[in-house]
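Consider the tokenized backbone below.
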């Protein structure tokens, strides 16, 4: 950017979109709009009525710094400190994964299974649900906000991640009666049984991790991504522990890599009904639903 030129909102967006495209951004125009709206303290839609406005020097300086960081690979969500998920806004930091659209299918499946459980049970209304590896808390909070008479237990091994999740719960007006946060490696420090267990666990293999986009490798928490050499190490342990913490007709619902679909029989034993595999919007196997026999 030439500091002597007149940089209107419209010109800033056009130049930045082209600049970010050259640096490999997958959605350069959207990135530019989100960043400029953030530094201006407005909604993205407000930019469309301000194309001819010229931001002040402080705004342009802050915008340039963010654009530089974005060009270097830092994800937009970490730059602005929040991300939309299931039509809700969640604070994020480098301590948590950025919520992704495909994970919304985990919420949808949990809500559907909750409805089935209530239809099959006479006299029980309240459901106990655990979210293992809650991260930002987006899955647990979305479920709690869209399902009446339930209690969520949000579990994560990372204390900093739990602090972010607690902040998000407060933002969305969830009380301690609705959601509890537990620091634990899977179920090691968790007691009790649950009607539904949901999880978006690490499922990337060490070899796959080396080929991920640098915006993921260099910024998102590796412990929330990499499961081990094979990619299913955490899933296998999750299945072993979840079985002991599920109600007799309870459901385990988890996100996994499409590349692991053919290997499910290796770690789903005969204590479960046949897996139901749901596809994401790209047509890839993404969500597995298991029910105890």
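A designed sequence for it:
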């Amino acid at each position: 950017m030439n500091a002597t030129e007149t940089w209107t909102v419209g010109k800033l967006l056009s130049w930045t979109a082209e600049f970010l495209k050259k640096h490999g951004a997958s959605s350069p125009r959207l990135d530019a709009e989100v960043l400029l709206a953030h530094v201006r303290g407005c909604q993205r839609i407000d930019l469309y009525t301000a194309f001819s406005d010229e931001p002040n020097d402080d705004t342009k300086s802050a915008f340039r710094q963010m654009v530089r960081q974005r060009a270097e690979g830092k994800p937009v969500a970490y730059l602005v400190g929040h991300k939309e998920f299931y039509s809700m806004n969640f604070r994020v930091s480098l301590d948590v994964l950025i919520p992704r659209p495909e994970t919304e299918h985990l919420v949808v499946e949990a809500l559907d299974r909750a409805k089935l459980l209530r239809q099959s049970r006479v006299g029980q209304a309240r459901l106990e649900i655990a979210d293992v590896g809650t991260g930002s808390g987006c899955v647990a909070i979305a479920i709690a906000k869209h399902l009446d008479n339930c209690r969520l237990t949000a579990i994560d091994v990372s204390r900093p991640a739990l602090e972010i999740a607690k902040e998000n719960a407060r933002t969305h007006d969830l009380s301690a009666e609705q959601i509890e946060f537990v620091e634990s490696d899977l179920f090691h420090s968790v007691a009790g049984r649950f009607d539904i267990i949901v999880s978006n666990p690490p499922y990337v293999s060490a070899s796959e991790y080396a080929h991920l986009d640098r915006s993921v490798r260099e910024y998102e928490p590796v412990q929330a991504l990499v499961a081990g050499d094979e990619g299913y190490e955490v899933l296998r342990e999750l299945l072993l522990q979840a079985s002991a913490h599920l109600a007799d007709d309870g459901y385990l619902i988890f996100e996994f890599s499409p590349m692991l679909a053919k290997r499910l029989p290796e770690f789903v034993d005969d204590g479960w009904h046949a897996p139901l595999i749901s596809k994401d919007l790209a047509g890839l196997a993404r969500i597995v639903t298991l029910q105890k026999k």
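Residues 95 and 239 are 25 Å apart (CA to CA).
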